[in-house]
Amino acid sequence: MNMEESTPAASLEAVANHTTDTSHESRLSIPFSIRFPAATTLAFITGLSLGLSHGSKTAGLRFRAENSHRFPTTSTGWYLYHKSKNYHMMLGGIKEGVKMGAKISFWGGGFFLVEEAIDRLRRTKDFFSTLIAGLSISGGFSAWNRFPLPTAGRTIKAGLYGGLAFGLAQDALGLARGRRLGCVDFLLGNKDQMMEDGGKIT
Fold first, then answer.
1. Are 140 and 90 in contact (CB under 8 A)?
2. DSSP 8-state code for residue 180
3. CB 9: neighbour CB atoms within 10 A?
4. What are phi and psi of 27, to 5 degrees?
5. What span, in angstroms and rounded, lies between the C-alpha atoms of 19 and 35?
6. Cα–Cα distance for residue pair 69/80, rounded to 1 Å
7. pLDDT truncated to tens, each residue of the chain (202 aa)?
8. Helices in 26-179 by DSSP H: which ranges?
9. Which of 19, 98, 195, 200 has the fewest Cβ atoms within 10 Å of its own Cβ atom?
10. Residue 25: enclosing H or E segment and its boundaries?
């Protein structure tokens, strides 16, 4: 009877321990299954906000330019003019917001997918995977938009610096939380190997 009662508790404890271990070894202490949708959602909201602001202003200026030769002359006409202008601004803002949100979400999600894929390929997590992800996404973004070489170079350089900074920040946080870093293990492994080789030569 006691064994039957303790089995569910033991199972729950095992699941909790496994979740804790997984989170501890994950980047930012957040599993990829949570980090990826959270990042893409945040990217979409950011793009939506920027697009709403930019799109509404652009639509308002376009409406004013298209109707500059026929400004109303009565109060009723001005009321209908501003009502129509506000409608076009709202519609233009929504269209641009969804468009920009989808773009930023796509490229931002791609960054985290590439980073995770390189982590799994290398079987370790450190800034190098983030650096490669930044270079890959900035290069892909430049190619997709057919940037000229100077613009593409600046974009890739921004991806390089951004990936390096974000990767080092993740490593610093992971190191503070006790996560082992692949680059540290690599350096320590080489140092230990050199010491072993030195001992054998002696």
1. no
2. P
3. 9
4. -65, 140
5. 14
6. 16
7. 444 444 554 444 544 444 444 555 778 778 888 999 999 999 999 999 999 999 999 999 999 998 888 888 889 889 999 999 999 999 999 999 999 999 999 999 999 999 999 989 988 888 899 999 999 999 999 999 999 999 999 999 999 999 999 999 888 888 787 776 766 666 666 555 444 544 443 3
8. 32-66, 75-122, 127-145, 149-176
9. 200
10. helix 2-25
- Which positions ≥6 away from 80 have C-beta within 8 Å? 72
- Burial annotation 72-93 (CB, 10 A radius, 16+ → b, else e): eeeeeeeeebeeeeeebbeebb
CB environment 163-201: b (16+ within 10 A), e (fewer): bbebbeebbeebeeeebebbeeeeeeeeeeeeeeeeeee
The gap from C-alpha 124 to its chain's centroid, in whole angstroms, comes to 20
Confirm whether pTM is higher than 0.85: no
